[in-house]
Amino acid sequence: MGGSFGFGEGVGALIARTSIALAGAALVGALVLTAAGLDLATTWEAIYEGAIGDELAIRNSLLEAVPITITAIGVAIAFRAGLFNLGGQGQIYVGALAAVLVALYLHAPGAVVIAIALVASMLAAGAWGGIAGVLRARLGLSEIITTIMLNFIAFWLVSYLVRGPIQDPEGDGYPYTREIPEPVQLGLIGDVVPVGAVLMLAVGVAAWLLMDRSRFGLKIKALGEGEAASRFAGIAVPRVTIVAMVIAGALGGLGGTASLLGVQHRLSDFFSPGWGFDAVATALIGRGSPIGTLVAGVFIGFLRSGIQTAEGTAEVPAALAQILLGVVVLFLIIANADLVVRLGRRLRQRLARGRGEALERPA
Amino acid sequence: MSGIVKEFANVTACDDVSLEVAGGEVHALLGENGAGKTTLMNILYGLVRPDRGVIEFEGRRIDPRTPGDALTAGIGMVHQHPLVVGPMSVAENLFLGGLGDGTQDGARAAIAPITKTIPLDVDLAARVDSLPMSQRQRIEIVRCLARDVRLLILDEPTAVLTPEEVEQLFIEIERLRGSGRSVIFISHKLSEVMRIADRVTVLRGGRNVGTHEAGAMTAAKLAAAMVGAATGDVTRSDGSKPGRVRLEVDACTITGRFGPPELERCTLGVRSGEIIGIAGVEGNGQRPLAELLFGLRRATSGTVRFDGRALPPVGRWQASKVPIARIPEDRRHHGLLLGAPLWQNLMLGPQPPRFGPVLARRAVLDWARTTLEEYGVRPADPTTLAANLSGGNQQKVVIARELGGAPEAVVAVNPTRGLDIRAQQEVQERLLQARGRGAAVLLISTDLDEIFALSDSIAVLYGGRITGPFAAAEIDRDRAGMLMGGVDGG
Lengths: 363, 490
Ligand SMILES: Nc1ncnc2c1ncn2[C@@H]1O[C@H](COP(=O)(O)OP(=O)(O)OP(=O)(O)O)[C@@H](O)[C@H]1O
Ligand SMILES: [Mg+2]
Description:
Chain A has 14 helices and two strands; from the N terminus they run H-H-H-H-H-H-E-E-H-H-H-H-H-H-H-H. Chain A is mainly alpha-helical. Chain A has a single domain (2-355), classed as ABC transporter involved in vitamin B12 uptake, BtuC, CATH 1.10.3470. Chain B is of the alpha/beta class. Helices cover 33% and strands 23% of the residues of chain B. Chain B contains 17 helices and 20 strands. Chain B has helices at residues 37-44, 67-73, 90-96, 104-115, 133-145, 163-178, 190-196, 219-227, 286-293, 317-320, 331-335, 342-347, 361-374, 391-403, 421-436, 448-454, 477-484; strands at residues 2-7, 12-17, 26-31, 52-57, 60-62, 75-78, 151-155, 182-186, 199-204, 207-213, 245-254, 263-271, 275-279, 301-306, 309-310, 324-327, 409-413, 440-444, 457-462, 465-471. In chain B, the strands form four sheets. Chain B has a six-stranded mixed beta sheet with strand order 6-7-8-3-9-10, with helices on both faces. In chain B, strands 16-17-18-13-19-20 form a six-stranded mixed beta sheet, with helices on both faces. In chain B, helix 14 packs parallel to helix 15 (421-436). The radius of gyration of chain B is 23 Å and the shape is globular. The termini of chain B are far apart. The structure holds adenosine-5'-triphosphate and magnesium ion (MG). The site of magnesium ion has 6 residues of chain B, from helix 1. Adenosine-5'-triphosphate binds at residues 8-9, 11, 13, 31, 33-39, 80, 378, 388-393, 420 of chain B.
């Protein structure tokens, strides 16, 4: 996470880096698939078809991308403040819990319930993230540890509730709640674009405004660059820490709720298949920038969706599919590591000099 | 070293530099801020890879890729900003440098051969970040010598030392020379260079513009060689009429955790349009006094007021827009976000302009560029990372940020430390300008020349107590010197 991302490197370098990473991932992926005795051409085609083959595929991919991306943008903001929010999972569960309670028990017109559910989930999950923020700001406890602990608490809280107090009475004992009523479900805009995807885009733009165009964003970034200097400059370090964690938590909650209202329609204890951690990887790939994270999240959503479909259509074993996914993500993270970026920059300078061209502006 | 070239993205730090240092010689390296001194030395010490050029040491060609390589070859460096690891003990730091086993006894044994000639005088159990710069520096020197270094590079070692400590260092340098070792000595203080160096090399804009026998030069000639023109001293106009008291320290005491209080009933009022200089030997309460004024610490008793109102704790300064410029002693730790671009650093000042609710990138960058140009920061590119500036230019950024918004009061701690003569003069002129605009200026400096050149009134800090202030005309250097030594020769 280079400190100056967002107005440093050119887009060209970004694309170059990403392409190289994807080529590398494709190569390793091909080796894995071949070793497993699968036909490459059919598998690639199945993945492609599953990701963007037709309208349905695109819709599913977008739906897949929404919770990961929204959560990841929150993680990215915390990153920039120098905070490692590993609590996406817990925040997703807490947010979805608040939302499902509103959706199930508040009787009002659909739009009103949706609005209240969204707000409630952000408040609840924001508070959940805020706990780690307060512990960090006031007691100096590492947010890495506390967010993980909070994940356990949130998960088991939901697990208990969906097996008891709010379990679906007609659900044959499955650990989930009743389905939320039809008017509260988020649908599509047109035939393809889920409402959640619009929400995701809005979050991306809002986060960009916050981080790159506001004074508060500057404070967040300052804190991430150096706590001592930020403190000296008169920034209220504890406050900024807490607010950054609240924002991260709130976005985790929002991400979960988008899936709750838009896809799953009920809360279960297998609600989030690890989105909170996918979000961390996504924020790393996005190098902590809101827009970068948005793009990375959408890409990962499409990829996940494509690979999952390929599981069915090309009979790629589920474990292999996960391995493929892991390979791609790992390559992308490597390509975005500071070291690689720096080496790339040096190489670029050398080339430019060799050709006798004017040097590019530095980061 | 010959034909050394190093280009960074936007500057050529070393442009075909050649340098020859003889055995048993003290070789001074002079040059303006950003002339490439540190970069050249970093290349020699394996911290930076040159683009071109050859390094030979003791007749052999060497190619140090890490400081470890350089140390093995017999070259050691004490960096401009001591690199010791803050939160660990001295013994542990020595262990990281390959000496002893991390315990006090182990460390003592490992450095025993060296400390016979150069005493360390440091508590081995002390945490490094609690030590004054002079002691940190000494740890570094000892660490190098223990590795049998035959060429020792000292990058602006005296910038962080008091006059007595400088004397001590010079004695040590003489000893090194006596034992046949070579020393490369970097400093902006010409008098020091004239005293200690055998030969002097001047760098300008990344080029070697001449090596001279020190005996054949004068300070004025060196200055002219450095900047390409002669320089004068700043002059303080006596016309200014101080107004009402703006900044007040009222009976402030900070009790020490052990031992005597760090500050004892300090009282001081700074009026608008005046500069009060606080002289004193480092370690006599400068740091707690500065921290008090910066809002970083609270007094055990007593208050610090601005316009009659108690200063808020530092976390509220940005929010309440306290119009006080603060130039901290430790620019790399407190002053700057090293990993952030310059424009972001400038935005952290006490009074950045209002850009409206949505920061327009173009407007911010334009403003930042203008400010950087006005304060002579090189390069004046607001997207450069602060870490990539030379030491002196980093300080200029701090000054630009703090003084750029026409503050109503200024608290400056050693503001010209590490600056070349021209920059030094510029900063001093800025402080005088602030005074001329009616700002209340408090200058805490260990450089007595600076105190006398700038101050309307002078106070002395000794053992946590303030004596004075005296009108500048009523106190001379001898008297100040005695007070600084704790002797009241009144
Ligand atoms: N890592 C870097 N990346 C980009 N530019 C750099 C880097 N390090 C140094 N520079 C630039 O190289 C030039 C020479 O810097 P250097 O630190 O060697 O100067 P110096 O002579 O030691 O100055 P000072 O007296 O201020 O310490 C400066 O313009 C500086 O901004
Ligand atoms: Mg330097």
